[in-house]
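Q: How do we represent a protein-ligand complex in a form that can be generated token by token?
A: Start from the inputs.
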Amino acid sequence: MADEFRRRGVKVVMGGYHPTLASRETLRFADAIVQGDAEQAWQRVIADAERGRLQRVYRNDRFPSIERSRPDRTIFRGKSYLPVALVQYARGCKYNCEFCSIRAFYGSDLRMRPVREVVDEIERVGRRHVFIVDDNIFVDVPSAKKLFRALIPLRIRWFCQASIDIARDRELVSLMAQSGCVNVLIGFESLDEENLRQMRKKWSLKYGDYATSIEILRDAGLMIYGTFVFGYDRDTVESFDAAVEFSIRHRFCLANFNPLTPTPGAPLYDRLRHENRLIYDRWWLEPGYRYGEATFHPRGMTADELTEGCYRARTAFNTYGSISRRLLDLRANLRNPHHAAIYLLSNFVSRKEIHAKQGITLGSTTARRPVAEHA
Ligand code: SF4
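Then emit the structure tokens for the protein with iron/sulfur cluster bound:
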């Protein structure tokens, strides 16, 4: 896309994770890149472009405040996006899981927008359904509670991503439900404690085991989207079935099962490279790489077994039998007609996507290679 725009004489500026964490390769395709937050840097980009003196790299000296950020949504008008407003409250995460690149991007700072500004933005957008896109909305529990209290009068339905330790605070969970939270995505990652320790996520179990925490969320009426990664040292070919069985038993609304994927900026990437276990140095540029494939050599199985195990787990979780069984949950998935409608819609979309995405080349919508060919 960038090549085509530049061929037409249009200046291309890129920002986000890729230009920040893999700047050299991005600069081959862009006239300029913005590393890290766009706030403050973007004004400089515009001013320089107007003077015809665009620099190659823009980066703030320090993390800017995100107060008074007002996203302009006019560019979405007339396009067929889902009728869900995407709103951000905070940036950063207090944790530092080994496979995650949030720290590399946002640093260790936690920055929140004033609650009043978030509420104003949601009111202005005027959507009934809101996805709060923060990587972990509970970076600061007192301010999260303040936000949820302010959301109650809006009568919206909202979705978010959070860490399982939210369950330790019943008031927090109750405020989530009261303010309209319907579905929360939680990275369980693994059922093995030693794996959690290796990925620096053992804190997940600090306040209770997974089963207890899940019950607290379901009792409050929250539907759960659980995600798992496979390929840490204690994982074997048996690990997939155990995670699928766990997800069905706990009536997860949705679940995903992915190969652990080393991304630039995450400590995991450097470790696997150092251990000489990466299959490709840069899988995202590798012409032979397909979506859903393992990118490194795990210890407890082969790379092909990792690819196939994840695909098999996704398929097993999304059978019609599993969808029907998980729906029978009066506390969360079948709590009311609205929950049931979201449950059914999201499950049918998820079921369709498994087969549509697996084996696809990055940046393409067609070139597919069936999983069986890996065997
Ligand atoms: S994986 Fe989640 S909890 Fe861990 S550092 Fe990243 S955002 Fe935070």
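The two ends are 34 Å apart (CA to CA). The mean pLDDT is 94.
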